[in-house]
Amino acid sequence: MLAYSSRLKKFAPEKARGVGAKGGGMFWTLRRRQHPRFEIPLEGVVRKGEKTVPFRLRNISAGGALIEIDSADLFELNAHLRIGHSATMEIPDIGTFKARPTRMHWKFAGFSFENGNAEIGAFIKHWTEAQVQPARPN
Length: 138
Known about the structure:
This protein has 138 residues and is α+β, with helices and mostly antiparallel strands. The chain has helices at residues 7-11, 71-80, 117-131; strands at 43-48, 51-60, 64-68, 87-91, 95-105, 108-113. It starts with 6 loop residues before the first helix and ends in a 7-residue tail after the last helix.
């Protein structure tokens, strides 16, 4: 049987010692997002200056989105847009928003929305409610 080590207490931060109700690791609980993400199949464009790049939405929340861009287009966009710089995201079904890229890798880019959180949250709520199908009687 393994004995509890008192040495661990010295190194693990106080709030990292336990395991949260939602799971996590032995010492660190899972990170919680401020806004839940939803996979909604939409397309749009990112604009930075005169450069426009089409994308496919992978997931979205009221605070940000993960998009998929063709690798060559992402390379072109990287020349005009840096992490933290402002750009415009146009998603025809939702609207036009100012956003800042938080990460860019291979063919994916993560964006954080600067404005429009209420509009995006309302769209997500409406879309998820429309996707719920009524239960069929047996």
